[in-house]
Amino acid sequence: MSPSRRSPYCRLPIVSLPSILLFGRKGMSSESSKRPSTELLNLLKKNLEATSIFIRGLPRNALSARKGVQNAAISVSKRLPLKVSDDYVRGAVDIFVSLAVLYVTTPAMARSVRRFPTASHIPSNLINNRSVLHGMVVAVRDGDTLRVRHAPLLFRLLNAYKLPSNTKLSQTTINIRLAAVDAPECASFGHRGQKYGPIAREWLREYTLGRKVAFRVHAIDQYKRALATVYRKPKNPILRVLGLGKRNVGLELTRAGYATLYTGSGAEYGGERLKRLYMKIEQRARQKKLGMWSEKNVTTPMQFKREVRAGTTGVKRLIEKNTVKRKQESRVDSEAEKGGQLSQAVPVSVIRFFEDLHMFLKRFR
């Protein structure tokens, strides 16, 4: 390894190397200053190799960073072929190693204190790396959408999940759409819902509300929601620390018979293995006739949404057809009838408008 190149494990700024050269030249005794330049290059080479070895074994836990700096500086300085009298060179090495530790551990420490208020604040690199985030469920909107209060490491240690006062959930929580699953629709925006929509929402609320969760974000959809695989953590703190006892919320919702595999555009499954598992769990729920599968003729959420879109156009055509029919029936046959109907033209049109509106709303009850 030449002194101008760095080990792939040594993520250090190259500007630190001239500092070591400076300290090394000033700190050497008159005898050591007569060493040839090749020996000095070999010294720097061993310095870089030792630091690279240190970086590979560096603990990334932010809590042990301070102790790691002390131990690393001592271990690396002992690796170098220096005399005890070369204090300046050893000091340069200690500074070099300390900067290396800070360079590696600072991002980890920053992640442990940075809280993401909404899904839009989650950095793209965390999404691309499939990083796992943590938080607590504070609201459930429907059968496959919930809101989570993000809590990084420091906030989890302090159990700081409380929402700030006088703020909206849309400003302080991450809106999460469960990845890979599709639950029955609830009534919203003037559209009727499905029979099992409120039941699926109540099941999800009872299963997750107020519980600590871990979630892996796959993408951010067009509605600024995080498409994520959510895992409910156990109540036992020992199991939580060990990472045991977690439950995939989407799988459990499907197992209960209140969700199907989502196959629409932008579907995220977290891998083919998980996709096959979702399909297997759904098939078992169908066979056991659990949840919505207990009905004879089941309309899946995807089919229901297609019917709603098609039904809106159908209602419009029905209103136009009835309007034309009534106009034909209301034609006058004489001037007397014409005069009599003209006097009531305005109220009749108002009545027909409300009749058409009633038919339109009745279709979506």
From TrEMBL:
Q: Which InterPro entries match?
A: SNase_OB-fold_sf, Staphylococal_nuclease_OB-fold
Keywords from the UniProt entry: Endonuclease, Hydrolase, Nuclease
| Species classification | Eukaryota, Rhodophyta, Florideophyceae, Rhodymeniophycidae, Gracilariales
**Highest taxon of source:** Eukaryota
Q: Name one Pfam family in it.
A: SNase
Tell me yes or no: is Transcription regulation among this UniProt entry's keywords: no
Q: Which Gene3D superfamilies match?
A: 2.40.50.90
Record protein name field: Putative endonuclease lcl3
CC annotations in GO: mitochondrion
- Ranges for domain TNase-like come to 131-295
One GO MF term attached to the UniProt entry: endonuclease activity
